[in-house]
Amino acid sequence: MITGLFIGAIIGLVLGLTGAGGSVFAVPMLILLLNLPVDQAVGVALGVVSLSALFGTISNWKAKYILWIPALILGLCGALLAPLGRQLGEQLSANILLLGFALLAICIAVLMWRQATGSPAQSAVVRANAGSGDQDYKQPICRFNDSSRFNLSVSCIVALLASGTVVGILSGLFGVGGGFLIVPTLVFVAQVSMRQAVATSLLIITLISGAGFFSFAQHNVLDWQLLSYVCLGGLFGMLAGRLMANRIAGALLEKLFAISLIAVTLTTLARQLG
């Protein structure tokens, strides 16, 4: 019980304090501290990430930063394909799945480090609190018209569907939220502010991770008691991240998380394969 609450709190806190990629901590921590098999760790991670993201979405709801049209296009596409990622994961051995996750985690850590180094102001915009850090972006694929309504074009829809496809498969396969891809995609294709991208990504993560979790739960035996403890800890962690975000979020914190993610991932890999 205590370990589950602790893991959930760390997952929620990291998800709340970092920009993209915070949820990727879930799988290695579940494997290291609870000795869960890789597939079970992925299932529990999907559950806690979706619930924590839902909590963050509700918290950001009144701020009106959520972009509903791109969120629904990207999110529903990803939600439809998350079960496919889960099915693909069932065809792979535990070691191959873990190696793939480790590669993904290291890529996310590198992206976090690069953002903290190249765009330190964006590191202050976190999932638990919309904060500030707006920035202008040029040549978006999706545009807003004069009445501030979202204009859809073929290239815009294709870009959102392509992102949803990749995020959905990765989410179902590895139990990650996909924010590391969702946030820059929204910034690039729609020329939105960083805080809009972050708030919108939470809703997308809720849809995609939720779909992956329900697909997993239908086809696998799940420790619901453990999941409830981890989810409860995740909610407390997300709340703590919301309270602490404006004080400690920033480039240095994101670099520390990037280093920690690589260390935890390599430790998990060495333990499982050693």
What labels describe this entry?
274 residues, mainly alpha, two-stranded antiparallel sheet, 74% helix
Topology (SSEs and partners):
Layout: H1 2-17, H2 26-34, H3 38-61, H4 68-90, H5 94-118, E1 143-144, E2 150-151, H6 154-174, H7 179-190, H8 194-219, H9 224-248, H10 251-273
Antiparallel strand pairs: 1-2
Helix pairs in contact: 1-2, 1-3, 1-9, 2-3, 2-10, 3-8, 3-9, 4-6, 4-8, 5-10, 6-7, 6-8, 7-8
Distance between the termini: 28 Å
Average pLDDT number: 79
User: Helical stretch count?
Assistant: 10
- Low-confidence spans: pLDDT under 50, at least 5 residues? 130-138
Structural class: mainly alpha
Q: Care to count the β-strands?
A: 2
The largest sheet, given as strand count, sense and whether it forms a barrel, is: 2 strands, antiparallel
What is the gyration radius calculated from CA atoms?
A: 17 Å
Order of helices and strands: HHHHHEEHHHHH
Tell me, briefly, the overall form.
Answer: globular
